[in-house]
Specification:
alpha+beta; Beta-Lactamase; 2 domains; five-stranded antiparallel beta sheet; 11 helices; elongated
Length: 251
Amino acid sequence: MKLTEYLHFVADCRSLEELWVGHMTQMTQYGLERLIYGYTRYKTETSFGDPEDFVILSNHSSEYLNGFLHTGLYFHAPMTHWALENEGACSWRQVHKMMANQELSAESQKVIEFNVSMGMTAGYTISFHSNSNRFKGAISLAPNPGTTQDQLDEMWAEHGEDIVLCNNIAHLKILSLPYSPPNRGLTKRQREALQWVGDGKTTQDIAILMELKTATVEKHLRLAREALSVETTAQAVLKAALQNQMFVMEA
């Protein structure tokens, strides 16, 4: 797609699945075949939050994702730490310089060794702007094995601004779309009960509005808390809202 066509496509997307397929296709036009997008709303000074709450989108192989994400290697990745401290785009040449200057920790060295074993030796990372120190999003963009960082930097010099624009627009769209982490989606009744709580209704009020027994409403709220892995209903309302699971228009 041309850039204007892509922007119209993103504006019209109604689901993460549709957006991600289109975005991957758009990035392949620049030779960027392997992508990992990650976003957290629960970052602290010492943690990214519960990994099960991350928004993760990727087209990498399961072997790579298991090694990089599920074993926790991502936490020590040099470009992950760059993304936490910076905004904008950065060439992975930065990592090459750190290696040459012996600035990498032992944990970071393991990440580099794993990436090399998987053919991940060239790429760019884009870190997105956030107005909250609890929120952080970034995307890793890598070509297929065989492309050098020199070749990628040359392409970026010509198309980098458009690539950054596409990814920023896609990121902003992702923030507006409903996202349910695996096994943490809400049922229609659970969502409805939380919505009434968000509107300030009591359990007794909700029972009348939903034409249910009070005990049934309490059950829906309890299951909603369990699904979202929180302790209080207030936390459930906040978390569901952050994941855009509240007040969702039915298809």
